[in-house]
Design brief:
By secondary structure, this protein is mainly alpha-helical. It contains six helices and four strands; from the N terminus they run αβααβαββαα. A two-stranded parallel sheet has the order 1-2. A hairpin with a 2-residue loop joins strand 3 and strand 4. The termini are far apart.
Amino acid sequence: MKNQDNFFEKVYQVARLIPFGRVTSYGAIAKYLGAARSARMVGWAMNNSGNQEPQVPAHRVVNRKGILTGKHHFDGTNLMQQLLESEGIVVVENQIQDFENIFWDPINELS
């Protein structure tokens, strides 16, 4: 369990760096952390991030196609979408529009 906790903390550290108005994917975070096949584990970390201090902007982490696959983990039916829209991100039918231009890749941005 300790290794998982350590991995989750690394995920949270990366997620906290995602700029306002930008998004990244579970896979991009996993790849940045040297665990390219661990996108699902990044998703688990996001699901468990609600009690973290400082807060983790989990709403900025989506799947590789820009789909809000984690939205059911947020309170309320549309909270994830509302949080993204409050940052100027357009979401249509659970999919981020102009995904390529607002995508933030930690490998390019932090390396």
